Amino acid sequence: MAKARVLIVDDNEKNRDHLIELLRFDDVEVVGESTYGAAAYTWAQQLDIDVVIVAIEEPVARALRTVEALSSGAQSWPVVAISSRGDRDTMRKAMISGVRDFLVQPVNAEELRQTVVNVRHVDQARKASSSETGLSHALGTVIAIAGFKGGIGKSAVSSNIAVALAQQTQQHVALIDLDLQFGDAAVMLDVIPNATIEDAAAEIERIDPQLFQSYLQTHPSRLRVLAAPYKPDAADHITDESVERILSMAAATNDFVVIDTAPHLDGLSMAAMEIATIVLVVVIPELPCLRRTKAALTLMQSWGYSKDKVKLVVNRAQRRGAVSTAEIERVLDYPVYAEIPDDRHILTGITVGTPASMSAPKSKAGRALNDLARTLCGVPRPQERLGLFNRLPNGRRRARARPNRKRRSLPANHCGGPRSPTNCPA
Q1: Which one of 5, 61, 316, 348 has the minimum C-beta count within 10 Å?
Q2: 254 neighbors 173 (Cβ within 8 angstroms)
Q3: Which residues of 162-250 form beta strands (DSSP E)?
Q4: Among 96, 21, 1, 9, which Cα is nearest to 51's?
Q5: What is the pLDDT of residues 366-422, one digit of tens each?
Q6: Could you give the CA distance from residue 226 to residue 195 in angstroms, rounded to a whole number?
Q7: Predicted local distance difference test score (pLDDT) of residue 234
Q8: Under a CB-based contact definition with an 8 Å cutoff, are residues 355 and 149 in contact?
């Protein structure tokens, strides 16, 4: 296989030299280096680049704009970010800008090499898939929701997050139910679909991305839903190739695409995770689920999926007697990205067909789901509107001044305490 051709982008020349030294391998070749800005894009065009490594350092805003320029547009390249800033906010901003992987300094040579090779491999597979289907690369943010045991609330999480994204962003959001045998996203959202993914797959050769939208059903939240087939045996007639084309069409015509996968690993789930920007793995604090999830996470890491792409979400958290979050992280050897508390509003939302993120946004689960959606799409949490003089210098709230109330005077003969014949005069 030809060497992976790499461009290094950093305003600091010493840092660029250090990365060049780290990447002295037989299968990797650093063919150029650049500062931030237009120069990076120009060099990438001229040097036939496979992967770009961009340092996310101050000025961070300029670095992120460089990532956006390199990773989007008519011509784009996969970007690996490397930074001394390992905080979640920086990682989130980098992923929103378009990075494929994020490494925190200090990084060793083999880790950097393996990341470059994996990112190049995935990018080549995506380009090959796009070439075969005649479609351009996915433009929207694709979020695959995975779970590896039935009954863990994966579909409830999917529908809640999809609705929350539609409401938080006011952009085009689609939910694809990829559990072809027993998917019930339409039931959870109380929508009656005119068509399903079975219909779209059957006519895949004649529909284009715009016509594809007619197969989606609109929910009151503005979410668009592509429902699973009515009959379980319909899954036998839907090919992996048709589903891959459907997912590409959804990503090409929506700002966000949420994919509810089947509760097991199959070809369709793997295709969804491959095209996804982020994979949310849902787990509940129970040992059988943890055991299966650990095996699946190990497999995904062997595919080259980083912890920036695969995120762990604990559903039904904080239940009395359940495994703690700290124990989940220890057992899975994987960080927890978000927790969704055990909350009756989730079940109520499923029963009435209105997700808790919409019907009960102030409930424990509703707040957690909306916060997770905001994090995924980069929308800040709403701040309480307090006046300038209602906060102390350290950020604490100032106690509200209560209106003056006229004190009610006690009778002259009142002696305090409860009135009784023995302690108050007649």
Answers
A1: 61
A2: yes
A3: 173-177, 217-218, 224-226
A4: 9
A5: 999 999 999 888 777 665 433 433 444 444 444 444 444 444 443 444 444 444 434
A6: 8
A7: 77
A8: no
What residues does 83 pair with on adjacent strands? 104
β-strand partners of 101: 80
Q: Looking at this protein, which amino acid is placed at residue 153?
A: G
Looking at the structure, tell me whether residues 242 and 219 fall in a common domain.
Answer: yes
Give residue 413's pLDDT.
Answer: 43
Query: Parallel, antiparallel, or unpaired for β 141-146 and 256-260?
Result: parallel
163 lies in the same domain as 278:
yes
pLDDT in tens, 6-55: 999 998 889 999 999 999 998 899 999 998 888 888 888 888 889 999 99
pTM of the model: 0.60
Q: Domain range holding 186?
A: 141-377
* Measured distance CA(300)–CA(307) in Å, rounded: 10
* Of the candidates 169, 180, 338, the residue with the CA atom closest to the CA atom of residue 259: 180
Same domain, 210 and 113: no
Domains contained in the chain, number: 2
Residues 6+ apart with CB under 8 A from 90: 56, 60, 83
The residues near 182 (Cβ < 8 Å, ≥ 6 apart) are 228, 232
